[in-house]
Amino acid sequence: MSLALAHAAAAPAQSTQVFLMSAGTTRLPDTAVGDLTAAARHYVETALADEQKLVHLNHFSHHHYFVVLADKPTPGQVAEQLRRAGHTLIGLLKADKVAEVFIQNLSDNPNAALLLAEGLALTAYQFEGYKTDEKSRKAPDLKTAYLVNGQTPVAKIHELQHLLAGVQLARDLVNAPLNKLNAVQFAERMAQAGDEAGYTTDILDLAKIEALRMGGLLAVNLGSPEPPTFSILEYKPANAQNAKPYVLVGKGVVFDTGGLSLKPTPNSMDMMKCDMAGGAAVAGTLYALAKNAVPLHVIGLVPATDNRPGGLAYAPGDVITMHSGLTVEVKNTDAEGRLLLADALSFAKRYEPELVIDLATLTGAAVRALGTEASASMGTAAPATMQQLTEAGQTVHERLVEFPLWDDYADHIKSDIADLSNLGKAEAGHISAAKFLERFAVGYPWIHLDIAGPAYLTAAESYRGKGGTGTGVRLLYEFFQMVLGA
C-alpha cells in the first residue's frame, strides 16, 4: 500500500491528530482533546459554531485537524463525504510534510475513522511507474495513518488494509502499459498475486484455448504477435458457505487498437491500456477476498489478448464459431470485448454457478449515458440480487444504473448470415452489447457491468485519482459481505 493503516492505543503527545466530530457539534469534549490551550479551544469551537467542516490548528511542532461529519439523508452519502474529507486532508498533510497521523473518532458514527482512512489511502495511492529521476521517484511523506483508542476493531483495520491492497493491485495492472503487461504477463501477475493472497491460478495457453474452441478469443488474437491467455482464478476456502460458486468474468484486452476497424488516437486509442480493467477488478477482488479469508467460493475467469490489425487479423465480414457453438458475424473488429467475454460466459456454465457477474470496459455508449460517475448494469439475475448489488454500489459509492434487456433489443444484433452480429445499432449500444452477451450467459443467473466510464480517468477526481481507479473491487467485496449478511 502507498499508505499503511494501523491501530494505536493512544496518540503520542505532540502528534498530528485528526478528530472526527458529529454533525452539529459546537463544543469539544474535555477529555478527548485535553492538550489544547483555552485560546485554541475557543478558536476551534468558534469555527464549529460557524459550521466550518474542516478546522486546522497549526501548533508548529504538530497539527490538529477537526473534521465535521456531513448532515446527509443517507449513510452512503455521509460515508462518501468522509472519504472525500480524507482526500482533502491528504493535501494539507502533504503541505505540512506529515509522516504519520492519528485519527480519533469522537462522532456518533462508529465507522467514521475507517471511512476517513479509506479516503486517505485511496488518495495516497501512487503508481510506481518507470521514472529514473530520483526526485520524481521520491516517496510521499505520509507513511502511516493510525486509528486510535480501540474505537475501531483491529480486525476491521486489517480488513480495510487488505481490501485497499486489492484496489491497488487493480490500479497497478490498469496503469501498466502494453509493453510492460501483455496477455502472458497479465496472467503471470494475477498468478503472483494469488500466490501472495491465497487463491490458485490456472493459466490456459494458446493450445488449450484452441482445444476449447474459444473462437472469440482466438479471433481477436489473430492480429497479435503475442499469444492469448485464459486465466482461471479460484478461491475456495474450507469453510465456504456457498455450495455453488460465484463466478466473476473480467474482460482482459490488454490493449485495444480497434483492430482493422482502427480507432482514432486522440482521446481514444491513446488510453486503451485500460481495456483490461474488468480483468484487473476480478484479480483485485479475489485478492481481497482471499487475504481477508472471506468464507465464499469464488472463481474468476479472465480471457486476455491485445487487439491489433496486423498479420492474419480478423476482418469485418468474418464469421466466427464461438465456444458455445453459436456463430457470429463480425461487423466491426472494435467490438472485440464481447467476443472474449462470450467465450468466458459460455465456459462458466461448467461450474454450475450460483451467480455470474462480468465486468468490462465495453462500450462508449455507457460512457455517453452515464459519464464517469457510474457504471451500467443489466442482467438476468433475480431483481432482489440486482438490487443488492446496486445497494452495495451506493454503500461504496461505485454506483450502478440498471438498464433494460427487453426482447426488442435482440433485433439490434441480428445477422443475415450468422446467429448473431457483434455490433448493434448506433443507439443503445451498451444495451445491445449486453444483449449479445446474454445469448452466451445461459443456464445461470447473470449480471453484466459496463464499467467503461469510471474505470479510467483522464483527470484526477477526488480519491479516485487519475488513471486506473480500481472500480469494481470495493463494489464486489461489499456485495459479497451482503451475501454473507456481514
Describe the structure.
This protein is α/β, with parallel strands linked by helices and 486 residues long. It folds into two domains: 4-150, Leucine Aminopeptidase, subunit E, domain 1 (3-Layer(aba) Sandwich); 161-484, Zn peptidases (Aminopeptidase), CATH 3.40.630.10. Helix content is 34%, strand content 21%. The protein is built from 13 helices and 20 strands. Strands 7, 8, 9, 10, 11, 14, 15, 16 and 18 form a nine-stranded mixed sheet that branches. Strands 1-6-5-2-4-3 form a six-stranded mixed sheet, sandwiched between helices. Helix 11 links the parallel strand 15 (375-379) and strand 16 (400-402).
CATH superfamily of the largest domain: Zn peptidases
Number of strands: 20
CATH class label of the largest domain: Alpha Beta
Our measurement of the CA-to-CA distance between the termini, rounded to an integer number of angstroms, reads 25 Å
Mean pLDDT: 95
Number of domains as seen in the coordinates? 2
Specify the CATH architecture of the largest domain. 3-Layer(aba) Sandwich
Structural class comes to alpha/beta
Label the overall shape: elongated
Largest sheet: 9 strands, mixed
Radius of gyration computed on alpha carbons: 24 Å
Continuous helix count? 13
CATH topology of the largest domain: Aminopeptidase
Assess the beta-strand content as a share of residues. Answer: 15-25%
Q: What is the share of helical residues?
A: 25-40%
Q: Report low-confidence residues grouped into runs of 5 or more.
A: none
